[in-house]
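1st attempt posting a full record on here, be nice pls
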Amino acid sequence: MKGKNIQYTDLELYQKFLEGDKHALGFLYQRLFPKLFVYSFHLVQKKPLAKDMVQDAFRKLIENPCEEMYQVEGYLRNAIRNRWRSDLRNRRSRLEHLEIFYEEASKESNPYHGFDLAILKELIARVLNPTNAQIILLDSRGFKNKEIAEELGITEKQVRERKSRSKKLLKDELGKNGFDF
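the predicted structure (as tokens):
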């Protein structure tokens, strides 16, 4: 098949890949990568992330072969767009968790009750990264370390270490701002 990839359509190359021709996927990748990269970069505006998204789309194509595919490039574009939407949802979800944390800080059952919310918001944004802020949020809501680890896709040990470090940072910063914690 070397040198003959120009003769084949994307769909024919994909069918050859399904029939066991490993070179066909390489040709398909070389042909579609530039277009898909531009499309992905248009969505995310970051070259490494755009490249990862294209590679993930091809990985999805390999791991979930589809016998009745009608347009390979369309399938890959959809996979890229779905990944982008999922990333947006996850980012939005993290921001919503922070908003919930700020709202719950005013409840008496919350260990951070009574603090000036504006100072607390600024402090958390300045001191903690989003993952550590989520750990503190989930911990304040009564989640166990194991549950937090599953939610965030990290180990329980990482949860314990990050939670301890985050609480210490918050305590130190709150002390500097005149709060007794």
